[in-house]
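Ticket #4471: structure export looks truncated?
Reporter: QA, pipeline team
Priority: medium

Steps to reproduce: submit the single chain below to the structure queue and open the exported record.
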Amino acid sequence: MRSALEIFPDEPDLLVNLAQVQRATQRFREAVATLDRCVALAPAHTGYRVTHALARLDLGEQDQALAELDGVIRDRPDAADAHFGKASLLLSTGRYAEGWREYLWRPPRARWLAAAGKPFTTATPTLEELRGRPVIICGEQGLGDVLFFLRFAPPVERVAASLHLEIEPRLQAILPARWALPPPSHGVRVLAGDLAAIVGGEAVPSLHLEPAAGRIEEARERLARCGPPPYIGLTWQGGQHWEDMVEPGATLFKRLAPEALGGALRQSRATLISIQRGSLPRDLASLASAAGRPVHDFSDVNDDLAAALAVLSLLDDYVAVSNTNVHLRDALGKPARVLVTHPAEWRWGIERETSRWLTHARVYRQATGGAWDSALARLTADLEV
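Actual output as written to the record:
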């Protein structure tokens, strides 16, 4: 990018792409400076202005970022990326009533409406409008997000004639059986991600889940073959890498170097269980070498959430970046130690060591510059208690 800018120094597209690389590599102040120049060259460009605001948010400048996003929305009321950026900011800071209305501008919702042949709208039915009618909840996001938003399903179920789900079968298999009945053709379809806006989503606990008894016995036998308790589950990577995104910035990539995680676990006496989806042999080897003992690969349970739920219910602890299994662990009422990358996803808030949403999780935050040293030192100390 820098070489290209030597030839075309005033090309805004090159500057915004350089800034995105700087953001992805944790050089946030450089990104803001690059975007200052980009916006100065094209002050009317909505995308550049939104990216500038999000880079300010990366730095923790919430008030300035909010003011910039509001300015974009005043000029372009239909700027979906500005609304969605504002949603993340508001939800991160606990302004839920405003945040959920802005969250209706999220890209997966727009894509779902378009695929269904419906015009985009931020209108949602009220609970009173759903009263006495069959309601079909549709999952338009990833497994973890759908599970997260199903915590808002019980208020809808209380007023609806019946509740049905149109979601991925892996997730359906661990949810209440009464929600598995085939949906009627005349039901009202509601997106899972809209439930918070419909019910007035203040922070409420996760939906409670229970693993099947037979699956628990299978998991207990498998764990016993790995070694004695206590058992610590591990996941060090999640999300989609920025290089591979169809929609840059839409999904937060989260990764902690396996050798760094292994080093933090070296003093613990636990048997180590990897629940990392698609774990690479070299990552497992690096983790095991740094930890000084074997790491047992349970990655297959990610394709069978009933098995994953059973394993997670038996672990004595779980250390992970944010992923679907963190949501499952919270739904079991079990503690987790979550390594939160910077910038943090909105559900982890800004500074707290706990989450208002995943109430059984303890948060270990990456520093603004990308370092994990302080978080891992805390993790090591906590695991020794």
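Status: closed, not a bug. The export was complete when the record was re-opened. Leaving a note from the reviewer for reference: The mean pLDDT is 94.
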